[in-house]
Design a protein that fits this description.
The structure holds 3 protein chains of 3 kinds. Chain A is an alpha+beta fold. In chain A, helix 2 packs antiparallel against helix 3. Chain A contains 5 helices and 11 strands, in the order H-H-H-E-E-E-E-E-E-E-E-E-E-H-E-H. Chain B is an all-alpha fold. Chain B is 65% helix and 1% strand. Chain B has 2 domains: 554 residues, Cytochrome C Oxidase, Chain A (Up-down Bundle); 37 residues, no CATH class. A two-stranded antiparallel ribbon of chain B has the order 1-2. In chain B, helix 4 crosses helix 14. Chain C has a single domain, classed as Four Helix Bundle (Hemerythrin (Met), subunit A). Helix content of chain C is 74%, strand content 0%. Chain C is built from 6 helices and no strands. In chain C, helix 5 runs antiparallel to helix 6. The chains are: A alpha+beta, B mainly alpha, C mainly alpha. Chains A and B meet through helix 1, helix 2, helix 3 and strand 7 of A and helix 4, helix 8, helix 9, helix 10 and helix 11 of B.
Chain lengths: 271, 637, 199
């Protein structure tokens, strides 16, 4: 290669290295967000983050191993100037190959165990005494109905919003059972800091449970492409103390709450 | 450039009596090499289109609250970006190489059905054009009114149903994909028959190059997966055009039917995208390490295993749809396990490089880049298979990072390795190696700058397919970095185009075997004569050509055999004056595949605009097919 | 299907199978996925109709049994056509091919009649899930039968031009493979869609 070619190559490698350095030295505020799934404030999101971190460790180790090998190989085995001899023509080594088939299989089998446990735990139906909220996602907004919480005329509390994202208020430290349905296209209900998403599909009612012990104002948005207003289909979840929640209910005119048990049974078809 | 290309390629042997020159020659060709080149050029043009679409998306997302593209435009552009890159770029680039290489690698003169091959190409080209015409049907394109489909490359129902997408965009999408599906099916059938039936004497299946094996698996995946997509699309077509109820929840239907069918196709599809590139990498690494592929049987078996297992993982695209713990568990486990054969390949490739004498040329750079990038992509895939984590990752930029990692860092890098490696064979000249390395580094840097930030963005809670995001949510910095990276990629592509054009005229003359290759294509002239081999070789082992050039001494070190390479050269035949003397009959060129191909878009236009046109299209198709069937396949007896 | 010379058949193939025969088998394999998907959609939706008409309200099983029998018999005549050309009896081949095509047309007529009956009873493509899945599935099957009839008629026509001789038996064999496949698909459809219906 020409001297200029070598120079250009080395310059680009340098740029690559510099970029990597800048990348990792970036200020901490580029790693924070109101929807940061790695800073969970709800038990579901917490479990999901833990599982993710659990698999990231071995993944990162394998990453270092493979990329390290690549770098080592390229440095150690590059053809030396003037040396045109051919290397030993190794065709394979069945023993090693079987080993590196079985070892990853075992590692992956290990990962499967907490995965399955997580699927069952997080996918279970909400407890009988969870506070029930019926979530309706539609083009391009959300509506929240609390069937157990009624005003004096017997009408269930319903939250919508025509300006700004609608707010789903929930009391802290209590399990909330969400029942999701759509009258139009598929949406997805996602409050990253509290829980992973569940799709909202016309013709079926999906369920999920959430719980948080950290009062706060959490950002959520639709996570399944649903047309023109998809990016604007946001909402907020307000986790507050039982006191503040009761005060909010009062301000909304709620005078009675039905016994917790019925709601879960009345959830109806999951199909 | 077309003339330079034709000039280069025409060197390899002109024609039969009666075959047309120039442009008409290309329209009627049934030569797999010419068809492969047309596939490659067309796919590359679509790559530029898809790339511009990507740049538009990245400009829109570079900062919060932008309105460079309004939601309607944004939705159309990201839909077309995905559809184009998958169906009009990576798939046809894979098929281009399958066309160029398979007959040469197995010692055949062409594919089993040369006219079917031409038909596949023309249907693909017309289908791609049909799909892109949709941009112009939405009103005034110069005012930014785009008619292109805007429901995502995966077109989820019921968003794609008439009542939610009343325009014609989705019609173009569903009918365009049907047309492209026919091209893929035809190609799949052709390559399977070619590989199974037309191998040179002595070439058992386990003496075939790995690229041929991967093409065989890919072709089986194609012929079994495309029909499922076709049915899903037909059902959508009946819903949209004739008010059927396949995806109508109000009458008891379920949108999940679409998802199941789409992903039953869609998951094998991603292996269709990656396996040819894996095959190419498996050819490049041994040549540039100057030692054989480590563990040929394991690499082949893992490819076959991936082919089988790809049918059992589809619902991992549906983990958040509420299928239930049983389904999520089953598909979680199957997805975890499909990492095993993939990992085997990575280790075998590393072992191929290990102990070699690495010639640091551009093809090797891209092949090693493939290993490095695909590993990251594969590992993120494993993180998705931890199902509860996927409830956070799904539909976010973390997924976008994953699939670009495997499709760009993987498939495209592998394809670029193939381009730099085989360009000399088909043009007779070398691509400039220095600029090739500039291409590589720019592409690697640009790629990483664009897509690694997306892993962060996904974790920070940025969903996919959003036209903009609010200021203050914390995504601005990484989006800006990603946009910068996208322009670096664009620069690298410009470097490549410059290299390509320059090298066609001024590249170093390659000769038959510029890389000291291992497989049969290096045993014939560059570019090859129309009939490929003067004498069909008799094959005795894997890497047969290498073993003719070298024998191993008792220590396992190769020793060059003088004139060992000269087997398949009769008298260096250039031009078919020699064909008759050798008694070689090549298939006649034909216009019927092109005629028949025209029927398809006509039918499709007819379904959208005027049913009379459907009959016209059907007649054109029938005329083309009848002409084709009744025309003799070979020279008159 | 091609009344071409068998220039290729003297070429040895690595598997020993003629290229075109292998192609037909692969094509039929992919058609299994095609019809399998359509049948799956039908089965998945079988119990989900929220409105009628329902299958048991429209089906006329005796009638459909007869037209199924007709199609089944057409496979017999197809086999006889192949046997005829293989022993060089072009005249007999023509008779049996014509019979097969006619039986196919009879089947299609039966389908058309059946569809109009269903339509009169209120079952349309857009009525409900049953209408959509039923008509699309059986419609595609019928289209395949129609294409088969076209292929047989083409071979028949070519034979009158003297272009079909004993050495072209492969074309008839491939047409036969296709025809039998379409017949088998019908047996599956008849069983799963007509005979096994929810009440």
């Amino acid at each position: 290669m020409s001297r200029r070619g070598v120079f250009v190559q080395r310059a680009l490698v340098l740029i690559l290295l510099l970029t990597t350095v800048i990348f990792f030295s970036g200020c901490s505020n580029v790693f924070s967000s109101a929807q940061n799934t790695f800073a969970p404030d709800g038990s579901v999101a917490g479990k999901q983050r833990d599982l993710f971190i659990m698999v990231l460790w071995p993944a990162f180790a394998i990453f270092l191993l493979v990329e390290g090998m690549v770098l080592y190989i390229v440095l150690r085995f590059r053809q030396r100037k003037g040396d045109d001899s051919l290397p030993r023509q190794v065709h394979g080594n069945p023993t090693i190959e079987i080993a590196w088939t079985i070892a990853p299989a075992l590692l992956l089998a290990i990962i499967a165990v907490p995965t399955l446990a997580g699927i069952v735990d997080l996918g279970r139906k909400p407890h009988k005494d969870a506070l029930r909220v019926d979530v309706t996602g539609f083009q391009w907004n959300w509506q929240f109905t609390y069937p157990e919480l009624k005003d004096s005329s017997g009408k269930a509390l319903t939250i919508t919003s025509t300006s700004g994202p609608p707010e789903l208020h929930i009391p802290q430290d209590r399990e909330i059972g969400l029942y999701l349905h759509s009258p139009d296209v598929i949406h997805s209900f996602w409050i990253p800091k509290l829980a992973g998403k569940t799709d909202v599909i016309p013709g079926r009612i999906n369920h999920m449970w959430i719980k948080s012990d950290t009062p706060g104002d959490y950002s959520g948005q639709c996570a399944e492409f649903c047309g023109m207003g998809h990016a604007q289909m946001r909402f907020r979840v307000i986790v507050e103390s039982q006191q503040d929640f009761d005060a909010w209910l009062q301000s909304k005119g709620v005078t009675e709450s039905a016994p917790a048990g019925d709601a879960a049974q009345a959830a109806g078809a999951t199909e | 450039m077309a003339r330079a290309m034709t000039g280069q390629l025409a060197m390899g042997g002109e024609a039969h009596a009666g075959a047309a020159e120039g442009l008409w020659g290309w329209l009627s060709t049934v030569d797999h090499k010419k068809i492969g080149i047309m596939y490659g050029l067309a796919a590359f043009v679509f790559f530029l289109v898809g790339g511009v679409e990507a740049l538009l998306v990245r400009i829109q997302l570079a900062a919060p609250d932008q309105s460079f593209l309004n939601p309607d435009q944004y939705n159309a552009i990201f839909t077309m970006h995905g559809t184009t890159m998958i169906f009009l770029v990576v798939m046809p680039l894979g098929v281009a190489f399958m066309n160029l290489l398979i007959p040469l690698m197995i010692g055949a003169r062409d594919v089993a059905f040369p006219r079917l091959n031409a038909f596949s190409f023309w249907v693909f080209l017309l289908g791609g054009i049909f799909l892109n015409i949709s941009f112009f049907t939405g009103g005034n394109i110069f005012k930014g009114e785009l008619g292109a489909p805007n429901t995502g490359w995966y077109g989820y129902a019921p968003l794609t149903e008439s009542r939610f997408s009343p325009g014609e965009g989705v019609d173009y999408w569903m009918l365009g994909l049907q047309i492209l599906g026919i091209a893929s099916l035809a190609g799949g059938f052709n390559f399977i028959v070619t590989i199974l039936n037309m191998r040179a004497p002595g070439m058992t299946l386990f003496r075939m190059p790995v690229f041929v094996w991967m093409s065989l698996v890919t072709s089986f995946l194609l012929i079994f997966a495309m029909p499922v997509l076709a049915v899903g699309l037909f059902q959508l077509t009946f819903d949209r055009l004739f008010d059927a109820n396949f995806y109508n929840a109000q009458l008891g239907g379920t949108p999940l039917l679409w998802q199941h069918m789409f992903w039953l196709f869609g998951h094998p599809e991603v292996y269709i995208l990656i396996l040819p590139a894996m095959g190419m990498v498996s050819e490049v690494l041994p040549t540039f390490s100057r030692k054989p592929l480590f563990g040929y049987p394991f690499v082949v078996f893992s490819g076959v295993a991936i082919g089988f297992m790809s049918w059992g993982v589809w619902a991992h695209h549906m983990f958040t749809t509420g299928l239930g713990a049983a389904a999520n568990s089953a598909f979680g486990v199957s997805t975890i396990m499909i990492a095993v054969p993939t990992g085997v390949k990575i280790f075998n490739w590393l072992a191929t490089l290990w102990g070699g004498s690495l010639r640091m040329k551009t093809p090797l750079y891209f092949a090693i880049g493939f290993i490095a990038m695909f590993t990251i992509g594969g590992l993120t895939g494993v993180t998705h298979s931890v199902v509860p984590a996927d409830y956070q990752q799904n539909d976010t930029y973390y997924i976008v990072a994953h699939f670009h990692q495997v499709l760009f860092g993987g498939a495209l890098f592998g394809i670029f390795a193939g381009i730099y490696y085989w360009f000399p064979k088909f043009t007779g000249r070398m691509l400039h190696d220095g600029w090739g390395k500039v291409n590589f580094w720019l592409m690697l840097i640009g790629f990483n700058l664009t897509f690694q930030p997306m892993m962060v963005l996904g974790i920070l809670g940025m969903p996919r397919r959003i036209q903009t995001y609010p200021d203050g949510i914390g995504w601005g910095f990484w989006n800006a970095v990603a946009t910068a990276g996208a322009f670096v990629i664009a620069l690298s592509v410009l470097v490549f185009i410059g290299n390509f054009i320059w090298s066609l005229r001024k590249g170093e003359i390659a000769g038959d075997d510029p890389w000291d290759g291992r497989t049969l294509e290096w045993s014939i002239p560059s570019p090859p004569p129309e009939h490929n081999f003067d004498v069909i070789p008799v094959v005795h082992s894997v890497d047969d050509f290498w073993h003719r050039k070298y024998v191993e001494d008792p220590r396992g070190l190769p020793v060059r055999v003088p004139a060992g390479a000269a087997i398949a050269h009769g008298d260096g035949a250039h031009g078919d004056a020699h064909d008759a003397a050798h008694g070689i009959h090549m298939p006649n060129p034909s216009y019927y595949p092109l005629v028949a191909a025209f029927g398809m878009p006509l039918i499709a236009f007819g379904l959208i605009y005027n049913y009379a046109l459907v009959f016209v299209g059907a007649l054109v198709l029938a005329a083309g097919l009848f002409g084709w069937v009744l025309e003799p396949a070979g020279p008159e007896e | 299907m091609q009344a071409t010379t068998t220039a290729e058949s003297h070429l040895e193939t690595s598997t020993g199978l003629d290229n075109r025969k292998l192609l037909m088998w692969l094509f039929l394999g992919s058609e299994c996925l095609f019809f399998g998907s359509l049948i799956s959609a039908y089965l998945l939706y079988r119990n989900r109709n929220t409105v009628g008409p329902y299958p048991h309200e429209v089906y006329d099983i005796p009638f459909t049994s007869i037209s199924s029998f007709v199609l089944l018999m057409s496979s017999v005549s197809m086999v006889l056509a192949l046997a005829a050309i293989q022993r060089g009896d072009i005249r007999a081949m023509r008779i049996w091919l014509a019979a097969t095509a006619l039986l196919g047309i009879t089947f299609l007529s039966g389908q058309a009649f059946e569809f109009t009956e269903f339509y009169d009873k209120g079952l349309k493509l857009d009525s409900n899930l049953f209408g959509s899945t039923f008509f699309v599935l059986t419609g595609f099957h019928g289209a395949h039968v129609a294409v088969g009839v076209l292929i047989l008629s083409s071979i028949l026509a070519r034979s009158f031009q003297g272009e079909v001789r004993q050495e072209h038996s492969l074309a008839v064999e491939l047409a036969g493979l296709y025809w039998h496949f379409v017949d088998i698909v019908w047996i599956v459809i008849f069983t799963l869609v007509y005979l096994i219906t929810p009440q």
